[in-house]
């Protein structure tokens, strides 16, 4: 079957699009963003970079710094500020931005101690406009959708991509179709997609089933696909790595630790670090490690059981619903990043995720469960010696703590049921971390009594 083409995506050619498997350059993108030759994923390449500038990237660093004092919409976006590293639009007025990016880098002293490190930092991509890292990719991909005159955009999602897409589509005056697994996404995310006006379909299947259905829809209706198989999304997501290095005054950390779901984000960050090295902006790259939940661990199993030769898909099950994915689209890209940066893949249990999430909260930062796999994985990587006590490490926190309040409340109330662990055992394990809300009479004495008890407990 010949797929419909997206005609004007390559109108402005500072870039080309190449298959990651057979290397064929695509002049006309198919609606499923796969190689017409071999069916694999595509990626954006910048031919002009073959001859890297000799000034060690100083000119680029200066331009990016300068833009921080500008008020133009392109410059105030933490994505488009780095537009030299992005595919160019034929008309910059097509850019749809919500001032994404510009996310904070936090010290996490409590988590450092829990992880056995001297120092630990986290870049909080949950501080984006819709509360997740998806916004950095969405601004780029939706701008290309608009440039190509699409009326509809669509994604299958575990909740964050859909929230982000719905917001950017609304800003662009476009219609958006969301396919999500019924009953398996966090309320905060579902509420966002409704509020931003998406046509939201809860399908009686899992994320992988939603992807299957959407693949059929794009063949039958003119609709622009915004899942991370769209290579323009990953280009936008690269900018978190550039912004991180700028925040670190271009000192490259030894390790970056990223959650793994559909495996687009670690691929994007890896691409950015490697491209910055190619351009002479930095002289080395961090080891990028990917952490998965034990119940949704296809990359972990692919590496450990098949040496990366073929994907081991799984029936995914985890309370970290954002990464409840059994057949990740970008597994090959992800493997390549692990290889090229000498990172590794680790898996963590549901109890380890819950404890790590509470520890990140206790540092005054907070995140959604899927982001907390990073700290849980870090602890294992320090224990195994892969990460040294004195090494510099940055966790990538991907989603805001308010995305999944139900998980957090249930954890603190003591009624979060962890798969394959007795409730009593989990409650005992997390006793010192839980903060159960206290119901009291309307009396100052009662409140003061609670306050004194808390002082006694803490001193
Ligand atoms: N963390 C959060 C909060 C996510 O929402 C996701 C993915 C990931 C991590 C994993 O990133 O897929 O690039 O490996 N969420 C997607 C969604 C799948 O539909 O919102 P990844």
Verbal overview:
The chain is globular. β8 (152-156), α5 (160-172) and β9 (175-181) form a beta-alpha-beta unit. Mean pLDDT is 95; it is low at 7-11. The strands form four sheets. It has a six-stranded mixed β-sheet with strand order 6-7-15-12-13-14, with helices on both faces. A four-stranded parallel β-sheet has the order 10-9-8-11. Helix content is 39%, strand content 13%. By secondary structure, the protein is α/β, with parallel strands linked by helices. 49% of the residues are buried. The structure holds ligand F0G. Ligand F0G binds at residues 132, 134, 157-161, 228, 259-265, 322-323, 368, 370-371, 398-399.
The pLDDT mean sits at: 95
What is the strand content? 5-15%
Low-pLDDT segments: 7-11
Coarse morphology? globular
Numbering strands along the chain, what is their spatial order in the largest sheet?
Answer: 6-7-15-12-13-14
> How far is it from the N-terminal to the C-terminal residue, by CA?
70 Å
Structural class assignment: alpha/beta
Number of strands: 15
Ligands (ions, cofactors included): ligand F0G
Oligomeric state of the chains in view:
single chain
Largest sheet: 6 strands, mixed
Helix content: 25-40%
What's the tally of helices?
Answer: 17
